């Protein structure tokens, strides 16, 4: 089988990457950084607060956690609804006890629909990051440009208005991007984004409206992937996180500061059967004086001030 010579005529093909968003970089050659909190390994906890509409569409793609039953799925809807009304407050008490200030990647619809929840988070000084409008409006290659621009603008504007924060971070709902998403985030005043899962450390990401810092939001260690999608016991998930902690901490001796990213969904980690495991996990992670919690915005700023553009 042969391919036409034009098959190789792709303008963005270059060393190591097939796009022009960033130049190829090997992590072992990246400049070392030091975190402002003084620890070697930063524990970055991200909570995903999402609204799954009862009539959410399943096309063109279904997000992880989306409803895969035909028609209106009360079962799926109520399971997700549990997280924003019950599980999140259990996580609040746990994070308070361990002195962890998380980043909250938040659908704008949750902020509008759950004012008491927003008030409780703001009272704790949690960092709010934009995460689209809701899980029924994903960003993908078939989203019309005008519609996607409207969604990005609505997400940032709503969360800034209701939180009073600058809201400079972004995580696309369901990790789904169109070719324009990062450009729209930068145009809306975003400074960091956490969609690409291809690194353990931040890097600069080119957009039409200036560079963003791409943050290493972990997917392989997320509770939703391990405990929900793969149906692994909480103890297995906890062991994986501790193994990642040990490896990343060992790398700090040679390569400088590292990030242990932990993504939590209240409708998964906030369940009674899992909260005790998470409690023990936080105790284990923070028992090492070189492991300290930090928000995504703090880490992005620390990295950007130490690594020349």
UniProtKB/TrEMBL annotation:
Is the keyword Flavoprotein assigned to this protein? no
Q: Which family does it belong to?
A: Belongs to the polysaccharide deacetylase family.
Q: InterPro entries attached here?
A: Glyco_hydro/deAcase_b/a-brl, NODB_dom
Domain NodB homology, by residue range, is: 87-186
Query: What is the protein named?
Result: Chitooligosaccharide deacetylase
Swiss-Prot/TrEMBL GO biological process terms: xylan catabolic process
Organism, as annotated: Salipiger abyssi
Asked if the record carries the keyword Cytoplasm, the reply is: no
Question: From what superkingdom does this record's organism come?
Answer: Bacteria
- Summarize the protein's role: Is involved in generating a small heat-stable compound (Nod), an acylated oligomer of N-acetylglucosamine, that stimulates mitosis in various plant protoplasts.
Q: Name one GO molecular function term.
A: hydrolase activity, acting on glycosyl bonds
Gene3D superfamilies found in the cross-reference section: Glycoside hydrolase/deacetylase (3.20.20.370)
Keywords of this entry: Carbohydrate metabolism, Glycosidase, Hydrolase, Plasmid, Polysaccharide degradation, Xylan degradation
